[in-house]
Amino acid sequence: MSRKKHDSTSPPNPSKIISKGKTSWPFTAFSVASLVPVVFAIILYQLDPFDPAPYPPDVFTRYVVPVPASNGRMLQGSESVGAGKLVGPEDVAYDPSSGVIYTGCADGWINRVTVNDSVSDSVVQKWVNTGGRPLGIAIGRNNEIIVADPEKGLLNVSAEGTVELLTDEAEGQKFKTTDAVDVAHNGIVYFSDASYKYRLKEFIWDILEGKPMVDFLATTLQPREQRRRCRKYHIQGEDKGRVEKFIDGLPGMPDNIRYDGEGHYWIALASGLTLPWDLAFRYPFVRKCIAIMEKYIGRPHMEKNGGALAVDLAGKPTAHYYDPGLSLVSSGIKIGDHLYCGNLVYPHIIRLNLKQYPAT
Ligand SMILES: *[C@@H]1O[C@H](CO)[C@@H](O)[C@H](O)[C@H]1NC(C)=O
Ligand SMILES: *[C@@H]1O[C@H](CO)[C@@H](O)[C@H](O)[C@H]1NC(C)=O
C-alpha cells in the first residue's frame, strides 16, 4: 500500500532507494573509491625501477654551523636586475674592466648585463647563444668567457663572441652536467661535472637517487653537495692535491661558490633545511615517492630559505642572507656594496644593497 502510494506520486529515485535501503553503502563506496589511488600508488611504487640508496648518516645531520649575523628577509629591499629579460640566470661573473656581468640562461643565451647604481639603468644584451644551457661562467686571462654548459661541455667564448669547445669528456666518459668553472691565476681552468649519469633537467634524480656521481675533475670547491659542506682542494704548494674540510653544517644546500676579492667566499644556497628534504635524505622510500610524483604529477615544492652565505678564508661564516620566499639560488657575488644572486628559476638577477640591508 505504501509502495503504491510512492509509485503514484513520483517515479522511484534510485539514489533515494539506495540511501534508504543501506546506510553504510555510500560510506563503503567512498572508502573503496579513496583506496583506488592508494592501491594505484602502491603498484606504481612497486613497479618503478627507481632505486634510491641510503645516504651516509652525515648527510642528514641536523648540525648547522653558527653564523654571527644574518638577514632572513633579504627579499625585502632586494631589487630585480634585468627583470623579465633573463631566464634563470644561473651563474654570474663580473668583469670589472667593462662593468658587465656575464650570465648564462635557460634559453641558451649568455647575456651581458651592465652594472649600474640604479637597476633601471642596467642594460641586458643577448650576447652569444651556446645552443645549450650555459651554467658556470668565468672570465679567462685573455678576456675570453669560459662556460660550463651541461649540454655542450666546456666552452671558450672569445671576446669577439666565437664559441669553441674545449672538452666534453674525460678519460672516455662524456660529461653530463658540466656545472661550475673557474680560472686560476696561471690560466688553468678548473671545472666540475655534477653528474655523469643525469643531465641538468634531471638533476633532481641525482639527489633523489643518492648514489655519488659527482666527478671532481678539478674543482676548488665542490658544488651541489648534498652533505651541506664544502671541501678545499689544494691546487698548488706543499699540500697540492690534498682535499680537506673547509666548512661543515651549512645552513642549506650549496651551489656555486664565488670569491669576492675582499676576503670572503660567497656560497650560494639553493634551499635552507626543510622538513621535506630532511625526510627525503633520511628515508630512501620518501625519495622514491618524490621521484614518482616528479614523473607523473610534478615535484612538490620543497625549497625555501635560499640565499647566500659569506665565509672568510678560514671557512668561518660571517653573514647569511636568505628569505623564506627564495629557492634555487645558484650563485652570489659581491660587487661594490651589492650582493648579486643568480638562480635557476627567476627571470632576473636578485640584488641586495648590503649597506642598507645588512646582516645583523
Ligand atoms: C651603466 O653601466 C655601464 C657599464 O658600467 C655604463 O657603460 C653605462 O653608461 C651605465 N649607464 C647608465 C645610464 O648609467
Ligand atoms: C679562448 O679563445 C681565445 C681566442 O681564440 C684564446 O685567446 C684563449 O687563449 C682561449 N682560452 C682558452 C682557455 O683556451
From TrEMBL:
Keyword tags: Glycoprotein, Membrane, Phosphoprotein, Transmembrane, Transmembrane helix, Vacuole
SUPFAM superfamilies per UniProt: Calcium-dependent phosphotriesterase
Family: Belongs to the strictosidine synthase family.
Cellular component, GO, one term: vacuole
Taxonomic classification: Eukaryota, Viridiplantae, Streptophyta, Embryophyta, Tracheophyta
Coiled-coil annotated residue ranges, if any: none
Domain Strictosidine synthase conserved region: 179-212
A family per Pfam: Str_synth
Major location (coarse): other
Keyword Mitochondrion: no
Entry protein name: Protein YLS2
Keyword Membrane: yes
Record field: transmembrane: 25-47
GO molecular function, one term: hydrolase activity
Database matches in InterPro entries: 6-blade_b-propeller_TolB-like (IPR011042), Strictosidine_synth_cons-reg (IPR018119)
Taxonomic source organism: Morella rubra
Compartment(s) where it occurs, according to its Swiss-Prot or TrEMBL record: Vacuole
